[in-house]
Design brief:
Blueprint: H1 8-35, H2 37-48, E1 49-54, E2 61-62, E3 68-80, H3 88-102, H4 106-115, E4 124-128, H5 132-140, E5 148-157, H6 165-168, E6 171-173, H7 176-181, E7 192-194, H8 197-201, H9 203-207, E8 211-217, E9 223-230, E10 237-240, H10 244-261, E11 278-283, E12 290-296, H11 310-318, H12 327-330, H13 340-349, E13 359-361, E14 364-367, E15 370-373, E16 381-383, H14 385-390, H15 394-413, H16 421-428, H17 450-464, H18 470-478, H19 485-491, H20 501-513, E17 516-518, E18 523-527, E19 534-537, E20 542-545, H21 550-566, E21 584-590, E22 598-605, E23 612-618, H22 624-639
Parallel strand pairs: 2-10
Antiparallel strand pairs: 1-8, 2-3, 3-4, 3-5, 6-7, 8-9, 10-18, 11-12, 11-23, 13-16, 14-15, 17-20, 18-19, 21-22, 22-23
Helix pairs in contact: 10-22, 13-15, 13-16, 13-21, 15-19
Length: 655
Amino acid sequence: MRPPSPLRPRITVLSVVVSVLLLALLSRLWFLQVLAAERYTDLAVANQVRQVVVEAPRGRILDRRGRVLVRNRAAWAITVKPTELRDAAQRALVLGRVSSLLGISRAEIDERLRDYNGSPLRGVPVAEDVPVEKLFYLAEHADDFPGVAPEVVALRQYPLGKLAAHVLGYVGEISGEELSSGAFKGLRQGDTVGKAGVELTYDRSLRGQDGVEDFEVNASGRVVRSLGGRPPVPGKDLQLSIDLDIQKQAEQSLADGMKLARGLADSKRGGRYPAPAATAVVLDPNDGSLLALASLPAYDPRKFVGGISRKDFAAYSRDPAIPLLNRAIQSAYPPGSTWKPVTALAALQRNLITPSTAFHCPGSYQFGNSVKHDWTPKGHGTVDLTRSLEQSCDVYYYTLGAKFARSEATQEARGDKASEDMQATARSLGFGKRPELDLPFSTLGTVPTREWRKRYWEQNKDVYCKGTSRLYKELCRDGWHWQGGEDLNVAIGQGALLVSPLQLAVGYGAIANGGTVYRPHVGRAVTDPGTGKLLHAIQPKVAQVARIPAGDFSAVARGLATVPSSGTAASAFSGFPLNRFAVAGKTGTADLPPKAPFAWFASFAPVEKPRYVVVAMVEQGGHGGESAAPVARALYDKLFGLPIQPIVAGNDRSG
């Protein structure tokens, strides 16, 4: 009998292992074919289907009469997916071919790719409005252009160019910071959102809802057929309160006013006024709606379509005139003598004066050890409230400022808190707080109080204590205290007092309507893009009501009505039918050394039943009666349907 083979146990073990493996394989096959059949069928289908996001067209933006300010247009773009280019050599080859085909420089293509901050899964547009023959060539030679594809994109179109650019704003791809902020929930990289103007504040209404389309593709990734999908839902249309005709006139009149100011001699500094910028506001005092909001210089929103180039953005950023700045709402300036009605209301409200109270108004006023000068050395004689506004007598308002200063000094000497009555009246008219406006980035302005001044001093005393001013040396030695002269500065709209042109318009609106401070707004309604049906009306909202007697408002309005007829704006309003459309207004010449004076004119009309508030300001434009009042006059010509008179310099060199 032969002994057992030593290999038999090994063969037995191997057989068992093979049997187990075979059983496991059969079990897995059974699982895949029976239990998991549905799941893997879905995966197989998914491998054959590609889903493409179809971007929803944004809603249009219309003026108050339904005229189009912003719309969309379809355009063929060439896109590049850098992730599909294998290496640097292929990238250089393919992008070189794209450059030759499109007739654009390789540097420009590289810049577009570099500036892109959207999803890496989406193609980067490197050229828009591509001619059809180039699209055909690309389709016929697709193998030579891996990662390059034509794509239809919806682009924002601004048919009126720069007009109302600061109101309309622009769009761009959402940034990482915006995605993480929570303000744009549900969006993803590559989505387009509003970046400025109403494009930003009404983005949720304008944006719409993206759709999807499914495509069947073969093993090579080429599209076989469309499988349908979910169509995009277009964004809603936004109708503004802005009137296209009034906006055009505002921007044209500002341009003319700047040109006019540049021809005026600056007797104090020599040469001519530089007048680098200007702004205007036209507001309805009965509901706060804005008919025009203009800021010059303006930027061109068309440069942002498809993404602004670094070169263009750098040019805007370096421009000393700051065209991206909406001066009407984002900048704050000393209001100069346009502030005098606010001081007058504070004095009337506290019974410091009556409309008939008169003060002698020489060419200067002494307060303590300092001497304040009137805008004219010869003075104005003895004036009451009406004549103080008509002639813009600084000394009248220095006198009121001194009364407030002495009263508050007495309160503090008793250990009481200073009432700061001028500041309280200003706040009741909407000053010193950010307007609740449907445009972004509005400024707060400054109504200086003791608390504000102390905080400002603590933040900046290290700088001031290095100076040589006797006042600052005393403050650094003895500690901060309120200077009575600050009340005199506030009384005439100077010093640390700062307002935006919009804030001044809102305040004059409250004077015009008897004390109601409306929230200013440019939106009027959200409508259906297909039918025009009203979806949401933007209702006027009251921000606050100034508790000032109606007689005080009437007294100030009577004084303001003399300014265009016989006062510091009479030259600018020469020939205007004030008997039919009485205008109440105030010139202002704000000092901001070492710059040339800023020219202001703030007003409302008609006086008896106000329909419009008009504020115009020319930066470094000289005196208010010379360059700002003529701008407002042209706007009133347009508002009341009168022939537009050429803008010529007024001869009123007032404060």
